[in-house]
Design goal:
CATH class of the largest domain: Alpha Beta
Structural class: alpha/beta
Number of domains: 2
Subcellular location: Cytoplasm
CATH superfamily of the largest domain: Zn peptidases
Largest sheet: 9 strands, mixed
Keywords: Aminopeptidase, Cytoplasm, Hydrolase, Manganese, Metal-binding, Protease
Helix content: 25-40%
Family: Belongs to the peptidase M17 family.
Number of strands: 18
Protein name: Probable cytosol aminopeptidase
Bound molecules: ligand BES, manganese (II) ion, zinc ion
Strand content: 15-25%
Radius of gyration: 23 Å
Enzyme class: hydrolase
Oligomer: single chain
CATH topology of the largest domain: Aminopeptidase
CATH architecture of the largest domain: 3-Layer(aba) Sandwich
Length: about 500
């Protein structure tokens, strides 16, 4: 069953009603009814962040959930307090199989504080709705096992139809990104990715072109061809266009449907997570979907290089020299640094063909990003101060923190090669940054920002832990880029 968010009176015709308030608003909770007053009076609910309590009553809605939004001084900020509290209520309700419909009532001053951090009250309520939908997500698996329980409906109060429409657009984008990233690599291979993109394009009336081997060869896309050559499934470059008028923006998303490492094969444990190596491309799909549904005033093009990085008799090899779309030659130091090679062709092509005002890329590019920042922030690198600062702010507002790392020229030395213009790897140190320095060679000097989402694209052993990240893919990047596009 696919959940649905709605707005309206949350205290009637629901199986459970949740009340959301911060620590300073225990009085508001106590005024709800004698039962809640009693429980709060006992001191058994203090509205700490992620604290929930479930109560039963005989009259009215039979189940009451209280979900805390913590204090005013939480480091995560007010809108994130709101998201977390709403999501925690959804998660609590989901544990009860008999609950199909959940109402959520948010205390007013929390909405107002959240509103101050973004574009006002409607924006804050939209954020809460999207968080509710994200918490209500489950990847629908094939087979006969018991399916995870999701709520048929989550109704938020306050809210109106306009807010709801915007929230659904964003939430659907996140769902799409998650579905694509979560899908097993045998189904969502480069062929499957093309199919998903075509379905999206016809549903939303987007322009679509898919370049296959023949065209990739005549265009000279040596990166995509080299990486994709080791697989029995043809590599391709998927291009989606949405024309809303306004600034020209290109979003490039890494879609390595499966990263076995190529001839520099990964060990089994590392390979187990590599169906998620298409998360950047999945996010790019979610971004165009949401932007189109929101009718944002931008000319957006999404470029998704889709490949499998496999070992075989046709694989590219260590020390090969390949030639990229923009003519730059690359010595292969490691076939497992494949993401930057396919991204490079897509970036160079985007720069030349679309002349974008802004280029963005999202990629699960390096394990080094996880070493540097763990699972709680993406790594952000850019050649443009204004764009970097806008993106950093958009990411924080969206609840998807991104932390900037430098891209000073001195790092480029690590990429030097004796046989080609550059190597594809830069050694052990600053691996996040040298990967970005490699990509920078392909953006033709245009304003560009790179998000390395290796640590945040799916829920790993150490996070990211948020009640709106149930498990598997997080859809990271969809909300950030939508926030950025709205701020242009
Ligand atoms: N897809 C991986 C990066 C990755 C690793 C993402 C772990 C998430 C979790 C990427 O293609 C890769 O293998 N990178 C190498 C680069 C190295 C060979 C320079 C890495 O990070 O080890
Ligand atoms: Mn790799
Ligand atoms: Zn990879």
């Amino acid at each position: 069953m696919r959940g649905s968010i709605v707005v309206g009176n949350a205290r009637e015709s629901v199986d459970a009603v949740a009340y959301i308030a911060g620590r300073e608003k225990l009085d508001w909770l106590r005024s709800i009814d004698p039962l809640v007053d009693h429980v709060v009076g006992l001191g058994d609910f203090r509205a700490e962040l992620e604290e929930t309590v479930l109560l039963y009553r005989r009259d009215g809605v039979p189940r009451v959930i209280l979900s805390g939004a913590g204090g005013e001084d939480e480091w995560i900020g007010h809108v994130e307090r709101l998201r977390v509290a709403v999501a925690a209520a959804v998660r609590r309700a989901r544990r009860l199989k008999s609950v199909k419909r959940l109402g959520i009532v948010v205390e007013e001053s929390l909405v107002e504080k959240a509103a101050g951090e973004g574009a006002g009250k409607a924006w804050a309520i939209e954020q809460a709705l999207v968080a509710a939908d994200m918490a209500n997500y489950a990847y629908s698996l094939h087979g006969r096992g018991e399916k995870p329980h999701v709520l048929a409906e989550v109704r938020l109060e306050p809210g109106d139809d306009e807010v709801l429409e915007a929230a659904r657009a964003v939430a659907e984008g996140v769902r799409l990104a998650r579905d694509v990233a979560n899908a097993p690599a045998n189904i969502m291979n480069p062929e499957g990715l093309e199919q998903a993109a075509r379905e999206l394009a016809s549903r939303l009336g987007l322009g679509i072109r898919v370049l296959h081997c023949e065209e990739l060869e005549s265009l000279g896309m040596g990166g995509i061809l080299a990486v994709g050559g080791g697989s029995d499934v043809e590599p391709r470059l998927i291009i989606l266009e949405y024309h809303g008028g306004g600034k020209r923006v290109a979003v490039v998303g890494k879609a390595v449907a499966f990263d076995a490492g190529g001839l520099d094969l990964k060990p089994p444990q590392a390979m187990l997570e590599m169906k998620y190596d298409k998360s950047g491309g999945a996010a790019a799909l979610g971004i165009v979907a949401a932007a189109a549904r929101l009718r944002l005033p931008v000319d957006l093009v999404a470029l998704i290089p889709a490949v499998e990085n496999m070992p075989s008799g046709r694989s590219y090899k260590p020390l090969d020299v390949i030639k990229m779309y923009n003519g730059v030659t690359v010595e292969i130091g490691n076939t497992d640094a494949e993401g930057r090679l396919i991204m490079a062709d897509a970036l160079a092509y985007a720069a030349e063909r679309y002349k974008p005002d802004i280029m963005l890329d999202l990629a699960t590019l390096t394990g080094a990003a996880v070493v540097a920042l763990g699972n709680h922030a993406a790594a952000l690198m850019s050649n443009n101060e204004e764009l970097a600062s806008k993106l950093e702010k958009a990411a924080w507002r969206a609840g998807e923190p991104a932390w900037r790392l430098p891209t000073w020229p001195v790092y480029e030395k690590q990429l030097e090669s004796k046989t080609a213009d550059t190597n594809n790897v830069g050694g052990r140190w600053a691996g996040v940054i040298t990967a970005a320095k490699f990509l920078e060679k392909f953006v033709d000097g245009r304003p560009w920002a790179h998000l390395d989402i290796a640590g945040v694209a799916w829920v790993q052993e150490k996070g990211p832990w948020k009640p709106y990240y149930p498990s598997g893919a997080t859809g990271w990047g969809v909300r950030t880029v939508i926030e950025l596009l709205r701020s242009l």
